[in-house]
TrEMBL record:
It comes from the Bacteria. This is Uncharacterized protein. It comes from Vagococcus zengguangii.
Length: 117
């Protein structure tokens, strides 16, 4: 009887170890969770920059391997279109529609303050 319970406990332990190692490997190989967190952070920074009407600098690239293009201006964000942001260039007065997934980094200067975010 004791031998059978010991065998059952060993099976249970190997099952737990196997499933946890499989979950660890799957989460290690899956970058979507990190990407979602980064996209939410970028989106919140864009919303804040738009609400402050701050001059914003964006680093944009379509893929990670492409070189980054740096753009600056005022950001316009509308909650009905959560996947796109509009950047108004202050010098040329042009508008650019940028998909949020192409934005790699957001920096802005709050008006009337010297704080950089």
């Amino acid at each position: 009887m004791e031998k059978q319970t010991m065998k059952h406990q060993v099976k249970y332990l190997t099952k737990i170890i196997s499933s946890s190692s499989q979950r660890f490997l799957a989460s290690f190989l899956d970058d979507s969770l990190i990407t979602k967190k980064e996209q939410e952070k970028i989106k919140s920074q864009l919303i804040r920059a738009a609400s402050l009407k701050a001059t914003t600098v964006l680093q944009v690239s379509d893929t990670i391997t492409e070189p980054v293009e740096t753009l600056y201006g005022k950001v316009k964000y509308h909650p009905s279109n959560e996947t796109t942001v509009i950047l108004k260039d202050e010098k040329t007065k042009t508008l650019k529609m940028l998909p949020i997934h192409t934005i790699r980094k957001v920096s802005f200067i709050e008006p009337y303050h010297s704080k950089i975010s």
